[in-house]
Amino acid sequence: MINDVSVIGLGKLGGTMAGCLASRGFNVIGVDVSEKAVNALNAGHTPAQETGLDELIQANKQRLRATLSHEDAILNSDLSFVIVPTPSDERGAFTIQYAAYAFEAIGKALAKRETYHTVVLTSTVLPGATRYGLLPILEKFSGKQCGKDFGLCYSPEFIALGTVIRDFLNPDFYLVGEFDERSGAALESVNSRVALNQAPSKRMSIENAELAKLSVNSFVTLKISYANMLADLCERIPGGDVDVVSDAIGMDKRIGRRYLTGGFGYGGPCFPRDNVALNFIGKHVGASTPLLEVNDNYNRTISPRFVDKLMPFLRKGATVAILGLAYKPLSHVIEESAGIYLCLALANKGFRVMGFDPLAREEATAALHMHALVSDSLKACLQDAECIFVTTPDEMFTSLKPEDFLQGRESVTVVDFWRCLPDTVLTHPNIQYVPVGRCMSDHASIEKLRGLWDGAID
Ligand SMILES: NC(=O)c1ccc[n+]([C@@H]2O[C@H](COP(=O)([O-])OP(=O)(O)OC[C@H]3O[C@@H](n4cnc5c(N)ncnc54)[C@H](O)[C@@H]3O)[C@@H](O)[C@H]2O)c1
């Protein structure tokens, strides 16, 4: 039975995996090239920000230690998870240079090991990367043979930042790409003791697992874009309301309600790039993948499209406030954030843009330098704003009262991307409330529809 595992790469995902594995009784050795991350874990603290992780690590620190040495980890554990960065390159493909460096160090350590060890790659990679890019590195530097002296799996996680602990311990399923039966069995024996929910395992070839990982994220982005398209349609149909339509179609088991809330574009460190990478590999192998390209374009142009659509509500050169700069609530991550893109699109049109986010202030300040001011406080952000855009349903924003928006002014416009503000704001006589995804002008939309039937009755 495997009791000793390593986690190589103690970042947003790996750091949380280390804490979760320890909480399920495994002795965990964490490895990172960053001394800061190693010291943090050894001091019983989280190496990367994630909700609840500091407490989890504190509670399980007797089963956790960290080191800068890959060799220490490989020699003292029987299975290792590798979760190092795989950044996108200019073509949209994932690079493997960090993984290659880790695999070289692991290979050198395997050369010194006398017993079998299973290496599990968790980082997101393109189909073919594990077998044709990384396995040769392991064999070269270990001088050993995969399947005989050591095992290899590709097994990604399906987690969302902010809920990584819950997602990791309660997966819908385990995706296990295995080099051979023995490698997959070793991983499955660990997984079966990690999941709190007896999640089933899908075992398959490494390449099918690499493809499945990208497909899951890409499919979800298509669903999100579909919901955003529905929201746009609803705004132009008399009485149209995207929540009413989504609640209905979500009842159909083939569709389901999750990720069908129309609002704003998708962002973050996984969804956009996974979609792009799947398109890259599709093109590379000669498959026809136009849906992926259309989806990416649709999502990337969502912020400028909103600015064009909302121009009638905005005074030229006005001060506008964007509440929500991270790609979602409870996160400090601004990668591919629709809120950041909205700031840039508004600044581009000559508006004075103020931004606020409860967690992402530092990151947003750097990204918006010269384009928008990021406020220290919500109050300061709202101070001069004639129009306020609520881009994430953060509790800090949904609990705002009409007087918080008005700040003593006679009137303000509030654009609510998620229709998440309370009725007191919606109905306030001095607030022009603009809910994305709901029809605001029945008259104009009726005229437009009526035009279709002109002449139907002679
Ligand atoms: N963050 C997510 O939501 C998420 C979700 C699913 C998959 N992933 C994938 O997981 C991988 C890691 O993502 P992340 O967000 O945790 O990245 P991250 O940048 O937060 O962390 C990566 C860590 O790996 C360390 N590292 C780099 N090279 C190393 C080496 N050779 N040996 C040991 N440590 C090394 C870094 O110092 C860093 O601490 C990526 O492939 C990503 O696509 C991330």
Q: Care to describe what's here?
A:
By secondary structure, this protein is of the alpha/beta class. Helices cover 44% and strands 14% of the residues. The protein has 20 helices and 14 strands. The chain has helices spanning 14-23, 35-42, 53-59, 70-75, 97-112, 129-142, 164-169, 181-194, 206-234, 242-249, 271-285, 290-300, 302-310, 338-348, 361-368, 378-382, 395-398, 402-406, 423-426, 442-453, and strands at 4-8, 27-31, 64-67, 79-82, 117-121, 150-154, 174-178, 201-204, 319-323, 352-356, 373-374, 387-390, 412-416, 431-435. The strands form two sheets. An eight-stranded mixed sheet has the order 3-2-1-4-5-6-7-8, sandwiched between helices. Helix 14 links the parallel strand 9 (319-323) and strand 10. The longest helix is centred in the middle third of the chain and has 29 residues, at 206-234. The radius of gyration is 25 Å and the shape is elongated. It starts with a strand and ends in a 5-residue tail after the last helix.
